[in-house]
Specification:
- By secondary structure, this protein is mostly helical.
- Helix content is 46%, strand content 9%.
- Helix 16 packs across helix 19 (481-489) and helix 18 packs across helix 20 (497-519).
Length: 520
């Protein structure tokens, strides 16, 4: 068996679509499962898109997720170049070969004539096929038209009276009737190649054995199979996987629909999270960086393993119960036979569940190292972090435990980084728990005196001491916790109350209680 070689061929759009990333992952998995090679090829024939800065987000997405490529940008390979813009000579040579063999022809028919033929076919309720009027021209007539600058395109001569078929790994047997196919354009008059032609030439040159791509490309496959046939090459095996759908729909996830997604109940939480985080790290709100883009998940502090887990489960499963899977595990067990045919909906709730699981697998040291850049970018600590700052963040991350679901969640605990007199209070909570509770302020005053004399300010010691102190006064902890938490953090929820006291330390904790008493 020949070496398995798969490819992913994105256009440099300036971002990596999360659905495209899922397609790339499946292609990567197939190559790795079979000890093969994964090639990254850039379809940059659109010169308006061909910008280096537009390519970088795509490469960054692959690197962030740990999906290495064996040949392609930055590393080259034996079949370079890997940019279509640099392969035009190969396309011209292939087209010239087919022209010499009579398998393609120059079509001088004007767009107006083609349009009229299509409209006539539609009116007569028959399938439009090319008129092939240019084939009736003599060599001298064609030469005369070219000399006069008559525009033309090069079309593949579709063989009539036969069918073209594939056995798709996902779709099964698929067949097209060549009698119903117009002759496709493979080359413009200026010599530039069209997608279906360039793609086949590249797949042949790069020795691609398996093309794993989204189902919307299935319509291109009939033309591509005919190009393989005309060039005398063995086509690769195909697997057309389902597209990634927007949450709770069967419609393809699209960046053009961002406005609608904001009102989608499932998707809304991802936008809301972004709106809370992005401004803190100096980025625009989620219209510019949104959940359709892989970069969103990296910026928001999702873990690569969580995103990979979610992507692997978009249209593929091992069985009916296994959810949490590492990339290594998925690679070992991946098969195309387990890929479904129907659209696979992106589920933010599942993604967040994977994230919570994989965060739980990370050590405190890992979490601290990954959280520090967020704190630095938000100006909550000076960067690079000092030993004391790192130690404090370590204590905070430990106290937060499973509350820290995304790395960017650390930015929601600014109360531990601001000066005491800059603390922002939950006004509704403060009003209810401190101002309107007749016993709150007297109790805080007494607690303040108690804390000043408490020798051990560790969470465990404070837990025991304050419980004993409350019991000695015949009071329940519920009479204290809400007012004390608001005094310390300005919030109604957060880490354990005694962890809050230890994190702030005696001096800051006592000062904040004093400020809350004055504020009441």
């Amino acid at each position: 068996m020949s070496t398995v070689r798969t490819r992913f061929a994105p256009s440099p759009t300036g971002y990596m679509h999360i659905g495209g990333m899922r397609t790339a992952l499946f292609s990567w998995l197939w190559a790795r499962k079979h000890s093969g090679q994964f090639i990254l090829r850039i379809d940059d024939t659109d010169q308006q898109r061909n910008r280096e800065e537009a390519l970088q987000p795509i490469l960054r997405a692959f690197k962030w997720l740990g999906l290495t490529w064996d040949e392609g940008p930055e590393i080259g390979g034996p079949y370079a170049p890997y940019f279509q813009a640099q392969r035009s000579d190969k396309y011209k040579a292939a087209a010239a070969k087919l022209l010499a063999e009579g398998k393609v022809y120059k079509d001088f028919e004007t767009p107006e004539q083609t349009k009229a033929d299509r409209e006539a076919a539609e009116k007569e309720k028959r399938q439009y096929v090319s008129s092939r009027s240019s084939l009736a021209l003599s060599g001298a007539e064609r030469a005369d038209l070219e000399a006069k600058g008559q525009p033309y395109v090069v079309r593949l001569l579709v063989p009539r009276g036969q069918k073209v078929s594939i056995r798709d790994h996902i779709r099964g047997d698929v067949e097209w009737d060549c009698n119903l196919m117009p002759d496709p354009v493979i080359q413009r008059g200026d010599g530039s190649a069209l997608y279906n032609f360039a793609s086949v030439v590249d797949d042949i040159d790069l020795r691609i054995t398996h093309v794993i791509r989204s189902e919307e490309h299935l319509t291109n496959t009939s033309i591509q199979m005919l190009v393989f046939q005309a060039l005398g090459a063995t086509p690769p095996e195909f697997a057309h996987i389902p597209y990634v759908a927007a949450p709770a729909t069967t419609k393809k996830l699209s960046k053009r629909e961002i406005g609608k997604y904001r009102t989608n109940p499932q998707f809304k939480k991802l936008f809301d999270m972004a709106d809370a985080v992005l401004p803190k790290v100096g980025l625009a709100v989620s219209e510019a960086l949104n959940p359709v883009m892989v970069e969103y998940y990296e910026t928001m502090g999702f873990l690569p393993e969580a995103v990979l887990n979610a992507l692997a489960r978009l249209g593929w499963s091992l069985d009916d119960k296994t959810e949490n899977m590492s990339l290594e595990f998925v690679t070992e067990h991946f098969t195309l036979e387990r890929v479904v045919k129907g659209p696979a909906g992106l589920d933010p709730d599942k993604l967040l569940a994977y994230q919570e699981y994989w965060m739980g697998q990370r050590s405190v040291e890992d979490k601290v190292a990954m959280c520090l850049p967020y704190l630095e970018r938000a100006g909550m600590i000076s960067g690079p972090a000092t030993a004391d700052q790192r130690a404090f963040v370590t204590r905070l991350v430990t106290a937060l435990g499973p509350r820290l679901k995304l790395l960017s969640d650390i930015l929601g605990y600014e109360e531990y980084f601001v000066a005491d007199d800059k603390l922002v209070y939950d006004e509704k909570g403060f009003q209810k728990r401190v101002r309107e509770d007749a016993g709150a302020v007297p109790l805080l005053k007494d607690l303040l005196e108690f804390l000043k004399a408490t020798p051990d300010f560790s969470a465990a010691a404070l837990d025991a001491a304050i419980h004993a102190w409350m019991e000695s006064r015949g009071l329940q902890m519920g009479q204290l916790v809400h007012a004390l938490r608001l005094a310390l953090t300005g919030k109604t929820a957060g880490p354990g109350l005694f962890d809050c006291l230890e994190l702030l330390g005696r001096e800051r904790a006592n000062h904040r209680i004093e400020l809350a008493i004055k504020r009441a």
